[in-house]
């Protein structure tokens, strides 16, 4: 199994717009080969002294942290899926119109170590 994970801050006033975007994104990823697509809203995280989810994205008081992941059977499937997603017209948008600060989002790919 292969996993893409990402964390980002979303202004609380934009959570409905973000949910609409994430709903379309979930459909696109699933159509192009993802096994699962999950987006979660933080409701029990604190701003840590050294590190934390809010600190990782420099979350402001009026923002909420999103933790999300997408699973695939393999990295090869993930790479092919992501290429199709990026070419899909439903995912074409101006980064300046996103309902969150794209510069503070971070993401990466991971090989599963334990799956239960």
From TrEMBL:
Name of the protein described by the UniProt record: DUF1428 domain-containing protein
InterPro entries: Dimeric_a/b-barrel, DUF1428
């Amino acid at each position: 199994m292969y996993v893409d994970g990402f964390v980002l801050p979303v202004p609380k006033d934009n959570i409905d717009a973000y949910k609409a975007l994430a709903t379309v994104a979930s459909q696109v990823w699933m159509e192009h080969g993802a096994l699962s697509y999950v987006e979660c809203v933080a409701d029990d995280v604190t701003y840590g002294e050294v590190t934390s989810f809010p600190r990782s994205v420099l979350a402001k008081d009026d923002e909420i942290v999103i933790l999300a992941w997408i699973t695939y059977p393999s990295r090869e499937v993930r790479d092919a899926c992501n290429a199709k997603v990026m070419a899909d017209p439903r995912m074409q948008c101006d980064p300046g119109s996103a309902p969150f600060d794209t510069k503070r989002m971070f993401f990466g790919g991971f090989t599963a170590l334990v799956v239960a």
